[in-house]
Every structure is written in structure tokens, then in C-alpha cells.
Amino acid sequence: MRTITVFTAALFLIISSPAFGDHGDEQVQYNIVNLNAEQSRQVANDVMVVTMQAIAQKDNAAEAGRKVNETMKWADQIISDDNKIKHKTLNYQTQPVYHNRVITGWKVSQQLRLQSTDFDSLTAVIGRLQEQLQVASMRFEISPDRRKQEVNTLIVEALQAFREKAELITQTLKAQDYRLVTVSVNEGNAIRPFRGMVQAEAMSVRALAPTVEAGDSKVRVGVDGTIQLIF
User: What's the predicted TM-score (pTM) here?
Assistant: First the structure.
């Protein structure tokens, strides 16, 4: 009997504790409305990113690697003349070449990433580099500073739109007012890749610079939240 009495008393304490009887928390569960708002705009891309690659295939890996290294040094000398272009090397790879399951040679490749806000300078450099390197990819995007500026503006607009929706719902449902319960701000991605290979025709010893169109990217900000209507 003593064991049953102790258990009953403990159960009573748990049920009557604040965690199970907080009327303030229960009140939040009534008259809740979920809503969202979004603002976006098209922004002109101001950064051009190009990946080029040097490839060499020789009888042995050392010879192929030496050829690629020479090509990359040659490219670095050309790029270093223009301080408007940022560049770095990527993805150095050495692979065997097979014929009838027998290694007959080695292929070495390395990529070069170029980035600039000066499209004319970068396309001119690409034209020169295409004498010995290939264009692997090209894309356009918004610079971090410009994107931050656009996002800050959209945050203000999205929050304003959220508030207008909350006021409209309050008036339509004939509530006296509303209380903001939760709110979150979500920034969308703003990269518009240029897909496919970009090539220039080799009309002479020096390849022509490619013709590019930067286009624009969509910058988006969304606001999600909940309000409690007060009647």
C-alpha cells in the first residue's frame, strides 16, 4: 500500500507542475496564422568566371607533367600582366592511357580558374590562352558586395510585405490586433551558370576571344512566420 501511495503522490506533483499547467503557453496555441512573403528582382551579373585546362599526353607521366607545367607557367606570365584578373590553379590529375588493357601512355591535366569584373580584359586574355589551353566552362554571377546590397534592400521590402499581409488578415478576420510569434528571413541563391563549352574559332595562330553575354541573376528574399490574432 505504501508503494501505491508514493506513486500516486508523485504523479500528482508531475501533473500539477508548471510544465503541464502553463496557461501562457496554451494561449499561444490559439488564433495562430502562418504566412509568408517574398520579394525578388533581376540583377545584372557583374562577375565572369572561366575555367580553362591544359592537357598533355606522353609516353611517360613525367614528360606529360613537365609539358603541363610549362603551359601553366606560360599562362601565368600572360595573366600576371593584368591585375584586374584573379586566377588560381585547380585539379592536377595524372591518368594512365590504356590500349587493349595495356598502359601505352600517360595523360596529365590541370585547370586554371580565372575571375574578373572586367569582361573585356578577361575575354581578351582567354583568346590568348586558347593558343595552348582549352575553355572547360564559363559562368556569370553577382559579386558579393552587389549581392549584399540587393539582399539588404529586398529584406526591407519582404518584411514590409509580410507586415501588410498580417494587417490584411487581421482586418479581414475582424481581429483587434495581432502579435508576432515567429519570423525567419531566407535568402535565395543568385548564381546563373552559363552552361556548355565556350569556344573561339582558330582563324590564325592566335585564337579569337569568345563573344560573351553576361545576362542576369534573380535575387530572392523570403520571409516566413506566424502571428497570433488578438480578438
Answer: 0.68
